[in-house]
TrEMBL record:
Region (Disordered): 436-501
Pfam family, one: DUF6824
Species this protein is from: Seminavis robusta
SUPFAM superfamilies xrefs: CRAL/TRIO domain (SSF52087)
Bias type Polar residues, positions: 446-457, 478-491
Protein name, UniProt field: Transfer protein
Compositional bias (Basic residues): 492-501
Domain DUF6824, chain residue ranges per copy: 360-439
Matching Gene3D superfamilies: CRAL-TRIO lipid binding domain
InterPro entries per record: CRAL-TRIO_dom_sf, DUF6824
Length: 501
């Protein structure tokens, strides 16, 4: 575990002190700092050191880690004195001696570097600790300068056009992917599959491709508030040959992490082969101390691994990696295409790229039929079926709008795939989606016992596998849908859109 070849600075002094203590513990246990553990005995020793670390945590710290892992932690909220904190952060930045890249970026594009929204993300990432945020934003520009030089990317968000051909080949390989669905807590899930990387490509291309994720896609306020979940899939015998390369990459990735603006809520390592245990515990030991205690290591066959991840709220229907199959690139390439379209339209802020969430209702064919938001929408619609079939046209529209409102109030959206991106439809299209569901199932003789297809091609499950959620939802919905609510909605629809549908 060789220390990174960076000049000492105030940016990572605390991290360095932590690393010194960590490496001393490693050496005292008789383990080498120059390689990953090599045997089961060494892996067991590292496992014990990691367990001792967790045991030393306070009860409050253990609970916080558990809440983060299971998506139960509260999102970060802005303090009332946010403007004052931004001013204090600027004063802290001026105290940092080595900030050449920061000043260069400020010279190139002061509006970007000094932008309130941009700086607010760094504050949010570090829990509104102005000193930590100041160091992070300075290191952020140091990392960008090292990877991309003094070119325009230094002073703006990264674009796909900033990547070289080799960089794009790495990106297209899918070794790093964002899942098309978020986890149960609405967090992005980053899947890393080092066994699928192209070892013939230079290390810098891998790092620039990864930086496109870490320094660009994750540079959003939503991510800073909720955090992200990382899943590392250690599948394939090629990982044994890549151990040394992975070791060196971890070393350089420390620098990128220190300049990244993302909160990692949890890290999951997956492995189906016992002989890879030394590798996974070595990788875990290389992580920063605050992350090592948020790691969960999962052994087993793929079905067992799927079940374990699902208990943490991670969606598995769209998971791209399998121990015995090639990596699935369908969703990843679709995401790349969507990103490119956004940039071609002049929108370099990837925060505007919609990633379907758990409660979103999706239009279209294919995998949308099993999306949890569609399954949930079917439950709600079925609760209103008897009422819907017994009333007139205007009342039907009011009921459909009420169902749409229930979905929207629980952070669900109605999305369709248009021009290679997900876009949110208007209120009338959302109501029509619900109405289409009723008409389609009526024409087929009522709801089926398994799956029902809407007339626009998207299918909605009856949710037999999620009865517990359906029962809870039914109880909540029944309290919110008294007769006077339907009557009020009817009057509003008649007044505003007398000729809807």
């Amino acid at each position: 575990m060789v220390a990174p070849d960076t000049t000492p600075s105030e940016v990572d002094l605390v991290a360095r002190e932590s690393n010194v203590q960590r490496d001393k513990t490693f050496q005292d246990a008789g383990l080498s700092l120059e390689r990953f553990p090599q045997s089961s005995g060494e892996a067991d020793l590292v496992d014990k050191l990691l367990a001792d670390e967790i045991e030393k945590l306070s009860l409050e710290e253990k609970e916080r880690n558990t809440f983060d892992l299971y998506g139960m932690a509260q999102e970060t909220k802005d303090p009332e004195n946010i403007d004052e904190l931004l001013e204090q952060m600027e004063l802290e930045i001026r105290k940092i001696n080595r900030r050449e890249a920061y000043e260069k970026a400020k010279y190139l594009n002061e509006e970007y570097v000094m932008g309130k929204d941009f700086r607010h993300i760094f504050l949010c990432c570090d829990g509104f600790d102005v000193k930590s945020a100041a160091h992070r934003i300075v290191q952020h520009f140091e990392v960008k300068r090292e990877l991309f030089g003094d070119a325009p990317p230094l002073a703006r968000n990264l674009l796909m056009s900033d990547l070289s051909e080799d960089d794009m080949n790495v990106l297209n390989s899918g070794a790093w992917q964002i899942l098309p669905e978020r986890d149960a807590a609405g967090r992005l899930v980053l899947v890393i599959c080092p066994g699928y990387r192209d070892n013939s490509v230079a290390m810098d291309s891998h790092l620039r491709s990864q930086a496109y994720f870490v320094l660009s896609f994750l540079l959003t306020e939503d991510v800073q508030r909720k955090g992200i979940v990382v899943v590392v899939c250690l599948f394939g015998e090629s990982l044994v040959k890549l151990q040394h390369t992975i070791f060196l990459q971890f070393d350089r990735m420390k620098k990128i992490r220190s300049g990244g603006v993302h909160k990692v809520a949890g890290v999951h390592f997956l492995l189906s082969q016992e002989y890879l245990r030394p590798l996974v515990f070595g990788m875990q030991w290389l992580l920063p101390e605050h992350l090592r205690t948020k790691v969960r290591v999962h052994f087993g066959n793929f079905e067992q691994l799927k079940f374990k991840l699902q208990t943490f709220g991670i969606p598995m229907d769209c998971f791209p990696c399998h121990p015995n199959k090639p990596i699935n690139l369908e969703n990843h390439l679709q995401w790349i295409q969507s990103q490119r379209k956004q940039e071609e339209r002049g929108n370099s802020n990837t925060a505007d790229t919609i990633v379907p969430g758990r409660f979103d209702v999706l239009f279209g064919r294919g995998n949308t039929r099993n999306h949890t938001g569609n399954v949930r929408a079917a439950h709600i619609a079925d609760m209103f079926r008897d009422k819907y079939e017994s009333v007139g046209k205007f009342e039907k529209t009011a009921i459909a709008e009420r169902i749409v409102t229930i979905i929207q109030e629980s952070q669900g959206r109605f999305l369709k795939w248009e021009d290679d991106v997900w876009v949110e439809v208007d209120q009338q299209a959302a109501r029509n989606k619900i109405s289409h569901f009723y008409r389609n199932t009526r024409n087929k003789g009522g709801p089926s016992q398994s799956k029902q297809s809407t007339s626009d091609g998207s299918a909605i499950d009856d949710g037999s596998a999620t009865n517990s959620e359906g029962e809870l939802l039914a109880s909540a919905v029944s309290k919110r849908t008294q007769s006077h609510s339907t009557q009020q909605s009817t009057k509003r629809i008649q007044k505003r859109r007398p000729r809807d549908d």
